[in-house]
Amino acid sequence: MVTTPYTRGRAKEYKVMEILRKDGWFCSRSAMSHGPVDIFAGKDGKTLLIQVKSGKTRIKRREKEELISWAKAFGAEAEIWYIRKRGKILKERIKLDEA
């Protein structure tokens, strides 16, 4: 099977959604997105916007500012999930007053 950066990234997003769904969240991907939000999730009246990064990739300042703007617009919380080697996941909650 041929893998591309897109298919690897998509697989990571599906993994995040699997984790969220097991925890009772309703969620959806922003397919083919090159924007700040990869996954939209909702649970118990809360909305969570997630940007998924893999490997050593870090979020750019402009991406983070956009993620914060989106979260404010939706009255949501924002997180960045870093998927590392061997499936280790680091979650960073974004403070909406950072921008």
How does this structure look, described?
- This protein has helices at 5-22, 61-74; strands at residues 26-29, 39-43, 46-54, 77-83, 89-94.
- It has two helices and five strands.
- A hairpin with a 5-residue loop joins strand 4 and strand 5.
- The chain has one domain: Trna Endonuclease, Chain: A, domain 1.
- The N and C termini lie far apart (41 Å).
- Strands 1-2-3-4-5 form a five-stranded mixed sheet.
Q: How many domain regions?
A: 1
Give the biggest beta sheet.
Answer: 5 strands, mixed
Task: Please identify the structural class as seen in this structure.
Answer: alpha+beta
The residue-averaged pLDDT reads 89
- Under CATH at level 1, the class stands as Alpha Beta
Beta-strand level of the residues, as a percent range?
25-35%
Q: How many beta-strand segments?
A: 5
Short structural description:
This protein is of the alpha+beta class and 99 residues long. The protein contains two helices and five strands; from the N terminus they run αβββαββ.
From the structure above, extract its key features:
about 100 residues; alpha+beta; Trna Endonuclease, Chain: A, domain 1; globular
Helices and strands in order:
Elements: H1 5-22, E1 26-29, E2 39-43, E3 46-54, H2 61-74, E4 77-83, E5 89-94
Parallel strand pairs: 3-4
Antiparallel strand pairs: 1-2, 2-3, 4-5
